[in-house]
Specification:
Length: 227
């Protein structure tokens, strides 16, 4: 599938797929969208609790931007970061993103390691972060039940990739979350939120990143203990 490289409004790069008429990130700003949706309303929301050891699952590794920003903003957290991708970018394509020029040159060695590290093998990227890449379609992969504190749901939108937003996929996400864990995504479509609620998620709409009115965060309820 042909990939074109375009600069977004915050100066960061993204990939455009003409065949799908879809971009990997918002053209209003790749970095600011990722920081708003997945860091501010995802990772930072976990960080506000007393947890220090955080399990993250990312749907759609793509160019590695979300993983890179999670490393940058993890601060005192110990991150166990798992990510799935069916159609990986190449090292040359990742280099064209030039993210570390904006995120920080100190992270380049770790970003390069993310892109180069083997699929299916857990790696220690740096002290405080393990990294595990899964080369598979999400439809063929079952999350470990009750493992994750936060899921970054960063698949292409329902218009371009409807199979990624089906009930069975969302149920897989629900099952993979710990009680009290959350799923965050840029998508705010009504049917998507209704499907989340039908599975058992508690759903909230939050202000979206630049260019989007809303985004979605959904929680897996904690089971009330019996007296």
């Amino acid at each position: 599938m042909k990939r074109e490289f375009i600069k977004t409004e915050d100066g960061s790069m993204t990939i455009y797929l003409p065949e799908m008429d879809e971009t990997y990130h918002s053209t209003h700003g790749a970095i600011q969208e990722a920081e708003h949706v997945f860091i501010k309303h995802g990772l930072n929301a976990v960080d506000s609790s007393e947890k220090l050891d955080v399990n993250v699952f990312e749907v759609g590794f793509g160019t590695g931007l979300n993983a890179l920003l999670s490393m940058k903003h993890s601060r005192h957290l110990y991150l166990n970061y798992d990510t799935i991708e069916a159609f990986p970018v190449t090292k040359d394509e990742a280099d064209k993103m030039r993210y570390c020029e904006l995120v920080g040159d100190d992270f380049k060695v770790y970003y390069d390691k993310m892109i180069r590290c083997p699929w299916g093998k857990k790696e220690s990227l740096k002290f405080g972060m393990t990294f595990f890449k899964i080369h598979e379609k999400l439809q063929n992969y079952s999350l470990t039940k009750g493992k994750y504190d936060v899921i970054y749901f960063d698949a292409f939108g329902p218009r371009a990739q409807s199979e990624m937003w089906e009930i069975a996929i969302l149920q897989n996400m629900f099952d993979g979350l710990q009680e009290g864990g959350m799923l965050v995504t840029y998508c705010a479509k009504g049917q998507f939120k209704r499907d989340l609620k039908s599975i058992g998620f508690e759903v909230e709409s939050l202000p979206g990143p630049p260019g989007k009115r809303e985004m979605t965060r959904a929680w897996k309820p904690e089971t009330e203990e019996e007296d």
